[in-house]
Design goal:
eight-stranded mixed β-sheet, two-stranded antiparallel ribbon, globular
């Protein structure tokens, strides 16, 4: 089974995007971004919800494009419509079974991309294995939270912290579930 890794930028006040999906306050270049790009090369599959996939349209992506061409891309959505020749797989029904199947069949680690609701559901199902936070010294005050809600019994064990200076930190956590079998 390959791990699901939620690798995401987050503000000090816990938002992965500000109002109107603003990500302008996060670093877009420099060592923290270089390390992120290096990690991307190690992921085999990207998973996300519809909103995160469609967020890519704001940056020139067109329906059916794979935002991460070096890995397979799976979008969980009941309503997303893509061309028949899409480079993206759609799974219409979110389920723990579908995610467990992906974990067992993926060619390597799975990158959980973007949105707080989808990430929260995957975490709540006990399926996120690692959390990589690119912590930025910014405040949004409102926007898209890292996790809109959390079940009880989730603990984090910090594996690594890297200080990039000027308040930027990279933190790697193993996710532990109190009710895991």
């Amino acid at each position: 089974m390959h791990p699901i890794i939620y690798d995401v930028a987050v503000s000090i006040d816990g938002f992965i995007a500000g109002p109107s999906e603003d990500i302008s306050k996060f670093a877009h270049e420099g060592p923290v971004v270089d390390d992120y790009r290096d990690r991307l090369a190690g992921y085999a599959t990207a998973i996300m919800g519809r909103s995160t996939y469609e967020f890519g349209y704001r940056f020139g992506m067109t329906p059916g494009d794979n935002p991460y061409p070096h890995m397979s891309c799976v979008v969980f959505s009941r309503s997303l419509l893509l061309p028949d020749d899409s480079d993206v797989q759609i799974i219409r029904t979110w389920s723990e079974t579908a995610l467990r199947r992906l974990k067992s069949t993926a060619a390597g680690p799975i990158y959980l991309v973007g949105g707080g609701r989808f990430a929260g559901a995957v975490l709540g199902a006990g399926l996120v294995d690692r959390l990589v936070l690119k912590r930025a010294p910014v405040l949004y005050g409102r926007g898209t939270p890292l996790f809109p809600s959390l079940p009880d019994g989730i603990m984090l064990r910090c594996r690594q912290t890297r200080d990039y200076g000027a308040g930027y930190l990279m933190q790697h956590f193993d996710v532990e579930y109190a009710n895991a079998a």
